[in-house]
Design a protein that fits this description.
The structure holds two protein chains of two kinds. Chain A is built from six helices and six strands, in the order αααααβαβββββ. By secondary structure, chain A is of the alpha/beta class. A five-stranded mixed β-barrel of chain A has the order 2-3-4-6-5. In chain A, a hairpin with a 2-residue loop joins strand 5 and strand 6. In chain A, helix 1 packs antiparallel against helix 2 and helix 1 packs parallel to helix 4. The longest helix of chain A is centred in the first third of the chain and has 27 residues. The two termini of chain A are 42 Å apart. Chain B is mainly α. Chain B is 76% helix and 0% strand. Chain B is globular. Classes of the chains: A alpha/beta, B mainly alpha. Chains A and B meet through helix 1, helix 2, helix 3, helix 4 and helix 5 of A and helix 1, helix 2, helix 4, helix 7 and helix 11 of B.
Chain lengths: 243, 338
């Protein structure tokens, strides 16, 4: 791979990082806290790439400098084994194309269907539910309470936001993916929706208001609490897709 | 490449099209441009395929791994380029204790303060040996520097939030591997397995030039291997049925060996491997620790680099021994700390 091509790849990957982090698109892939680092890394790469491109072009125009650059490149390549040398750098084309041309969507029902929803017992107990009727909860909070602290939910109306994931055997789950670091380590939280007449296609974002329904559905490694829906309405997909 | 240089001299300055290997009509820049155009065209044709949820999930996981690791990769590359430019290798030879048996743990611990990914540490270790550092100490440094430097430890803490024990376990397991391998070399190693080293390439350049050249070089190489890791992790995530992952993940011995072997094959840069390890949620933590301890110590890329720097005879003995020690250290430390 020539030096110009290397410089171009560095520039483009930096630009890709900037592009994602200028808008909210990066939230499909990583957590909010990474944004400043994506901006800095993108900026550094663009500077490194552009300066290198400029130097490459100057070197090419100037025969003496070109000879020097050749010399340098030859030395550089003699310095390491070529079996896994520059060829692997070509692969950097893939993320650049994926980001600029496809910008894949946030994970949704497909991942929720593949991942197993286990509900971990929190080290600290659950605080009393905040006031509010209905009270707004995350799916993680609801599922944790349903499995480990049922009493705190009884008799309360709750409101949650998530996407629709098909339920094996009919009906649907209200689902959300939680990420620890980036989308690659996502785990689903699923809540089985009872009593809702309308059905929605998979990946529709909904806001559900309902009441706690005792009983946990266990299939394979899935642990799925239930909810009695009172009202369900479609909502636009949220800025932050993960919990 | 004296011929290429000669050829380049004769090229009219305005042309600019012949690449470094002027004999080929097509330069890698042309290929790159062609690829980008081709994707634009294919994107129209493949529209339907790209809407498939499995393909989208695959692409999202791939992009998220690359994006998450990118800042750490950039940080590591910048720091290691700065060190290779600013710190003279003679400094290390003077700083180490005389007795090799003592120099090994000191050199291993020195890896903590010297960030650099494994591709960078092999030439550094080569430079150390050629400047009079005992090979055993240089190898301890070679194994510890990419595995336990601050960039890697921070990346690991970010990848496993709320689980500081993972960072601690990684630190001690990797340090253990480095020191044990250094002492093993002292006891059993033979000088004849080593081949004389080449000199580092950027010497003699102005400082900023040397920095820029090594940073770009390190980045495209480490980045390429990161993409290999991202592709594999995304493919595993989407294609391997959950039942298979559950079955492997349920058996500690099998899962440790599977992930250790995966680390060798994937050759992910140590600054990025914690994110891949964190994504392998179906596996027990000790197996994921083995992935992070084996990866920076021995993988296909390191094997090639070591064979190139120290000779094939060295690499053929060193790499398998390192693999065994790394797996043992992971299981030991994992069973105590995780």
């Amino acid at each position: 791979m020539s030096r110009e091509a290397q410089s171009l790849l560095v520039t483009l990957l930096g630009a890709a990082s900037l592009r994602l982090s200028f808008t909210d698109v990066y939230l499909r892939y990583v957590k909010e806290g990474l944004r400043p680092f994506l901006l800095i890394a993108g900026l550094l790469l663009v500077v490194l790439g552009v300066v290198s491109l400029w130097r490459d072009v100057v070197a090419r125009r100037n025969p003496d400098a070109a000879a020097e650059a050749q010399q340098l490149e030859a030395e550089e390549q003699a310095g390491h084994d070529h079996a896994h040398g520059p060829a692997v750098a070509w692969l950097l084309v893939l993320p650049i194309m994926a980001i600029f041309l496809v910008a894949p969507p946030a994970l949704g029902a497909y991942s929720a269907g593949r991942g197993s929803s286990t509900v971990a017992k929190p080290d600290t107990g659950f605080p009393a539910l905040p006031k509010g009727d209905p009270v707004a909860l995350t799916l993680t909070d609801y599922a944790g309470r349903a499995v480990w602290d049922e009493g705190s939910l009884s008799g309360r109306a709750v409101r949650m936001r998530g996407f629709v994931a098909p339920r094996p055997g009919g009906g649907y789950y209200l689902a959300r993916l939680t990420i620890a670091c980036c989308a690659a380590d996502s785990r689903p939280v699923k809540i089985s929706v009872r009593g809702a007449e309308a059905s929605f296609p998979a990946d529709t974002w909904i806001e559900l208001t309902g009441r706690y329904l005792p009983g946990i559905e266990r299939t394979g490694s899935d642990v799925v609490p239930r909810i009695q829906a009172v009202s369900v309405r479609e909502i636009p997909s949220p800025r932050q897709p993960y919990e | 490449m004296p011929e290429a240089t000669e050829e380049l001299r004769n090229v009219p300055s305005a042309g600019g099209s012949p690449g470094p290997r002027g004999k080929r009509g097509l330069t890698s820049l042309d290929v790159l441009a062609g690829l980008l155009v081709l994707t634009l065209v294919l994107r129209q044709l493949l529209g339907g395929v790209l809407d498939d949820p499995a393909v989208q999930t695959w692409a999202t996981i791939f992009v998220s791994l690359v994006i998450q690791a990118l800042p750490f990769l950039v940080l590591g590359v910048v720091i290691s380029a700065a060190i290779s430019v600013l710190v003279p290798s003679a400094f290390f030879a003077r700083a180490l204790p005389r007795r090799p048996a003592l120099a090994v743990p000191v050199a291993g611990a020195a890896g903590v303060v010297l960030p650099g990914c494994e591709c960078g540490s092999v030439p550094i270790a080569g430079g150390l040996v050629s400047r009079g550092v005992p090979p055993a100490a240089a190898f301890a440094f070679l194994l510890s520097a990419p595995a336990i430097n601050p960039v890697v430890l921070v990346a690991t803490a970010v990848a496993f939030p709320g689980q500081p024990s993972v960072v601690v376990a990684r630190f001690f397991a990797s340090l253990l591997v480095a020191v044990v391998m250094g002492w093993l070399w002292l006891r059993f190693g033979k000088g004849e397995w080593l081949r004389p080293m080449r000199r580092p390439s950027v010497s003699g350049l102005p400082r900023w030039e040397a920095f820029r050249v090594s940073a770009r070089h390190d980045f495209v190489h480490a980045g390429g291997f990161l993409v290999v890791g991202g592709l594999t992790a995304a493919t595993l995530n989407v294609t391997v049925p959950r039942s298979v992952l559950d079955a492997i993940g349920g058996n500690l011995a099998v899962s440790v060996l599977v992930l250790a072997a995966l680390a060798v094959v994937l050759a992910i840069c140590s600054e990025a491997d914690a994110f891949v390890a964190a994504s392998l949620t179906a596996f027990p933590m000790t197996a994921r620790l083995a992935f992070m301890v084996v990866g920076p110590a021995v993988d296909v890329k390191l094997f090639a680099l070591q064979a190139g720097t120290f000779g094939r005879g060295f690499a053929l003995r060193f790499a398998p021994a390192t693999f065994l020690v790394a797996v043992g250290a992971s299981v030991l430390v994992g069973s105590v700390l995780l």
